[in-house]
Amino acid sequence: MTLSSAPEAAAVQPALRGSVLVVTIDHAPVNALNAAVRRGLIDAIESADANAAVRAVLIVGAGRNFIAGADIREFGKPAVPPSLPDVCNRIEACGKPVVAAIHGAALGGGLEIALASHYRIAVEGAKLGLPEVQLGLLPGAGGTQRTARLIGAQAALSLMLSGRHVGPQEALRLGLVDRVGQSDDVFAEGLAYAHELIATHAAPRRTKNARGLADKEASAAAIAAARADTQKKSRGLLSPLKIVDCVEAALNLPFDEGLRFERERFLECRESPQRAGLVHAFFAERETQKSPETRGAQPRALDRIGVIGGGTMGAGIAVALLDAGLSVTMIERDDASLERGRAHVEKVYDGLIEKGRITQEIKARALQRFDGDTTYDALADADLVIEAVFEDMAVKKAVFAQLDRVCKPGAVLATNTSYLDIDEIAASISRPQDVLGLHFFSPANIMKLLEVVVPARVAADVVATGFELAKKLKKVAVRAGVCDGFIGNRMLAVYRTAADHLMEDGASPYQIDNAVRDFGFPMGPYQVVDLAGGDIGWAARKRRAATRDPKARYVHVSDALCERGWFGQKTGRGFYRYEGGARAGKPDAEVEAIIDAERERAGVTPRAFSDEQIVRRYMAAMINEGANIVHEGIAQRPLDVDATLMHGFGFPRYRGGPMHFADSVGLENVLTDIREFAKEDPLFWRASPLIVDLVARGKNFASLNQAD
Ligand code: 3HC
Ligand code: NAI
């Protein structure tokens, strides 16, 4: 049983049940610790201490969770007392035993409340963790000090540095909880525990006195190892090393001093732009799931799914679907292609087995839900079909004509096209209301982004089905309108062009990649080209050649490499050399010579750029196109652009996406940059009307995000 949540009730409701004061936290949706909850908790503990009839206290959460943590929406606003550390200290100081009974999430400040309680019980489905690191924070209400004392330095560091959630059994093994309930009735389990403690005259047992750090030598070694590892891995992030410092403080300082040390580090993190970026990312990921269609329409069924095409994307999509427990029928042109498609699927699983991520059994079980065919009739029962054949309008239309013929009424017909006009595809069949874009990113079983592309004539419940699919696949769905490249690829084309201009003007591709990596992307644009295959972009450029503005600047370097057959990693050469099949490329003097020749041909005298100048141009181009995309309604809000870039294109999460980044450096500064760059190339650098308008009104992109 879980307690029901009444929206109008007080955030914290104390009620005496015999000699136990049951303190129910009831603050929908997730019992986050806002000021009212914090105040209510202190008041409840005060009343427990003051009331002779109370012999124990039980803290439980109403609804589906214990407590999800500090109220993230309060960050960045003026602090309202009491502070969370004060609440935790007050609970720990209670003169009567306090039991925390945990169901659902006990995360961050939620777990800190439980750790400040004297006894802990968890029931099935509980998720305990200290995920602050994922928000650019550290546990700041005694979590670093109490967790280390309770479960030891190594286990505490592993929890806090990964931010992972643990279930009740693991929590018990670690010593985070004292027992796991026999049933999932958290209230009954907690109450029984509290009565048992009263019956056995158990005293308050304070975590600050726990002995998990008693072995000083082992603790110091664990801290040193974590510090070395974190220095290697934390790539520009502030909070992980501070977490290690706090655990060191727990080892070396008395509890109260350790708390002060932790609080100072916490406040540094809380005020950092990284925290702002990561919290923005957290809300953006949730906000993108809400589209006008998902609010009003029920998704259609999603049991049997067809995938057409077994190439790079078809196979990756099939694996993503199988991994979510869905059944997949793959359609290919002929037996040989189908065999290749199946082999592609198997290869993805074999790669995961090789890396130790999955077992043979998991692969075998997934493949039981996979079959293939070469005739479309096999799709007669499909609820959803995702087409991933060649990027060619005529081929796509022929496929959709077949789907129109065989699929049952109401089946959702989706295309994974990267650039083609989905309205045109939809208009070519008798049921345009069922046609949707589902744009996956490569590798489709790994990349988190799914653009749900909404053509003009699609039915709302078809769009809702796209979002429902994303949920099943655990992907971040972003609603996009129809245009060349939708949100992500359209932006990519523009910032890649800005990079090409920089390259021809004097920066080497290696310097550009380096500067972009230093900004926080895992790879630079030329490494990405080499990884994806230069031939893909080459084909797109050839397709667009006829419609390109003849006055627009065009850099020929990429074409020159492709003409030599240098398509990147798969051919051993691209912008980099990949010797002996190496995955990391080396700079190539011949490529630099080709660039020099192109500069000469274009009449460009090369000049030097600092890394900062490179990043400013790269970002300005990205932000400007993002603004155009919002302005045209292709993306609903700036946060949709942010989520797209973070989950599909490696934009560093701690910077919150390009639009949030623009706000953080000041939109007016971005506009000044664009106008400055426009002096050299007014055709490419045309300030987006949205930026001009926002700056004129003293507003920023966040003002267009309802969630912010
Ligand atoms: N503060 C404020 N709002 C929160 C919140 C929080 N800590 N956690 C979740 N929410 C909101 C979400 O934004 C969402 O709002 P919406 O309905 O308006 O979009 C709503 O609660 C439901 O959240 P989810 O959609 O994520 O619901 P799920 O059921 O899928 O997941 C959850 C629940 C596992 C609790 C997940 O929301 C979560 O992981 N929350 C964040 C947990 C966290 O990071 N806690 C640490 C906070 S920092 C801290 O505690 C600092 C301390 O050490 C001092
Ligand atoms: P691919 O060339 O690897 O695979 C295409 C497959 O479709 C081939 O196996 C081919 O045999 C099959 N096919 C062709 N015509 C068919 C037909 N009439 N019936 C059944 N099967 C047919 O191509 P890739 O890279 O998988 O791309 C597929 C689609 O996904 C394209 O629209 C592409 O733009 C899009 N896309 C590609 C991404 C990438 O990174 N490769 C990323 C996102 C989308």
UniProtKB/TrEMBL annotation:
Start and end residues of each 3-hydroxyacyl-CoA dehydrogenase C-terminal domain: 485-578, 614-699
InterPro entries per UniProt: 3-OHacyl-CoA_DH_NAD-bd (IPR006176), 3HC_DH_C (IPR006108), 6-PGluconate_DH-like_C_sf (IPR008927), ClpP/crotonase-like_dom_sf (IPR029045), Enoyl-CoA_hyd/isom_CS (IPR018376), Enoyl-CoA_hydra/iso (IPR001753), NAD(P)-bd_dom_sf (IPR036291)
Xref: CDD domains: crotonase-like (cd06558)
MF annotations from Gene Ontology: (3S)-3-hydroxyacyl-CoA dehydrogenase (NAD+) activity; enoyl-CoA hydratase activity; isomerase activity; NAD+ binding
Keyword Isomerase (UniProt): yes
Keyword field contains NAD: yes
PANTHER family: 3-HYDROXYACYL-COA DEHYROGENASE, PEROXISOMAL BIFUNCTIONAL ENZYME
Protein name: 3-hydroxyacyl-CoA dehydrogenase
Species in which this protein is naturally found: Caballeronia novacaledonica
